[in-house]
Amino acid sequence: MSYPKIAQLKEVAAVRARLAELGLELPIDDRILTSAEGSPLAEPLDVGGFRIGNRWCIHPMEGWDANADGSPSEYTQRRWHNFGRSGAKWIWGGEAAAVEQGGRANPRQTLATPANRAGLTTLLSTLEEAHRTSFGRADDLFVGLQLTHSGRFARPHSKQLEPRIAYHHPLLDKKFGIDPHDQSIVWTDDELDGLIERFVAAAGLAREAGFRFVDVKACHGYLLHEFLSAFTRPGRFGGDLAGRSRLLSEIVSRVRATYPDLIVCVRLSVFDTLPYQTSREVGQPMPYDDLLPYRYGFGCRADDPTQIDLAEPIALVKQLAALGVAAVNVSCGSPYYNPHIQRPAIFPPSDGYQPPEDPLVGVVRQIRTTAELKRAVPEMPLVGTGYTYLQDYATHVAQAVVRAGWVDAVGLGRMVLSYPELPADTLAHGRTDRKRICRTFSDCTTAPRNGLISGCYPLDAYYKRLPEAAQLRGLKSD
Ligand SMILES: Cc1cc2nc3c(=O)[nH]c(=O)nc-3n(C[C@H](O)[C@H](O)[C@H](O)COP(=O)(O)O)c2cc1C
Ligand code: SF4
């Protein structure tokens, strides 16, 4: 099944027509507004007592490109520099930084450990300096560091998985070759007490480096997200919602208590769906009929895990608000086992599958689910995800949904890899540079899946000239 490409939809009316054809409702403005014309994206926003200069946010994106000791390489610094000159005033996390060596998603993930104290400071100052140079000030720039443990997807030493899991998941164990009887890789409650301390220590390092906030990452299948679906886990950290969310809540509470002046935010996969089979064909979920009622997903229905159920995510966001979490960045699913819901794309990554739905459906699912969450917990500032696939029309939708109060700020991921200045260009000039718009070729995901550094190989001249670009072409033609 092939779907119309966004680049072929030459005007807003064509996008509206395509949305209508799909039975989707999404606010979309006729044209991009500048700050001077009153763009809703130019409005400041108060979060945790900090006044953020505008409503564009940059999502965290790692590049598999730090040095082996977790310190930033030239590539890492260039990416943070680009985030700084993007014009967005909210930098959500920069990238995932592991709180311990064993929690790295790859051997080149940035570390938030004392060994990389200086590196964290360098990243922040690189970003702030770039922002100041482009925009004359950085006092309204809100920058945090995303703290993570990769759990089931830890690969700290090589491409080989070294999973540390919350519980045995029948489908994910099978997909990723995990022995379902291996108890040595399941965290014990005592080990988790130690992990909580490592998160607190990492938050302290981020604070020392000058970050305004930390994001306690609970998304994309990584450890703190996986715990939210640990229905089958006995003991303090599993079972009911209070148990499954205990690890996240305790980390948040301990960081808040230890560093009262540090703002705490959470990136959350608010809904999940089944893991999909890797193939060259149209994506299919792994067979699950004998697993009903399904007890292996957060934010999806037990009787039909293909459907979203926001009851628990809403309760969790309320709980996080009560603990003093200042904002939630709403994401979903996992790029490892259902990438089409997490980062809608027309061209799949090498470990994915052909899109099982028009990627616009995935975009609207994320935007409307975020709006539902906003209605349920209006006091919690929310950042929305999934806008890159809208390509030339991302800003038209972003300003319309912010105006409508569906979300407080709009985050960009892949788009800023190909075109970092999009927020600045839209706010200053009301237009974008078509040639630099991300077309969701997925090379920035395919490269790291094959052990190469991540970057926008198709559109960023800097990556085009690297030897890795030729390697990637070879891999793709294989
Ligand atoms: C190369 C790459 C690296 C990413 N790294 C992270 C990360 O470190 N932390 C995170 O929360 N999300 C990460 N993401 C997910 C993005 O933040 C974002 O949720 C996703 O790309 C969807 O947003 P978009 O449609 O604007 O690209 C990454 C995505 C890409 C493409
Ligand atoms: S490689 Fe470039 S064009 Fe492709 S998805 Fe990533 S950012 Fe977009």
Description:
With 478 residues, this protein is α/β, with parallel strands linked by helices. It is built from 17 helices and eleven strands. Strands 3-4-6-7-8-9-10-11 form an eight-stranded parallel beta barrel, surrounded by four helices. α9 (311-322) links the parallel β8 (263-269) and β9. α2 (74-84) packs parallel to α3, α3 packs across α5 and α5 packs across α8. The longest helix has 21 residues, at 189-209. The two termini are 22 Å apart. The model has no long low-confidence stretch (mean pLDDT 97). The site of flavin mononucleotide (FMN) has 25 residues, from α13 and α15.
Instruction: State the helical fraction.
Output: 25-40%
* Cofactors, ions and other ligands in the entry: flavin mononucleotide, iron/sulfur cluster
Instruction: Briefly note the structural class of the backbone.
Output: alpha/beta
Calculate Rg over CA atoms.
21 Å
- Run of helices and strands: HEEEHEEHEHHEHHHEHEHHEHEHHHHH
**Discrete helix count:** 17
Major sheet, described briefly? 8 strands, parallel, barrel
Number of beta strands:
11
Q: What's the pLDDT, averaged over the residues?
A: 97
- Shape by Cα distribution: globular
Strand content: 5-15%
- Uncertain runs are none
Rounded to the nearest angstrom, the distance between the terminal CA atoms is 22 Å
In spatial order, strands of the major sheet run 3-4-6-7-8-9-10-11
Short description:
The chain has 17 helices and 11 strands.
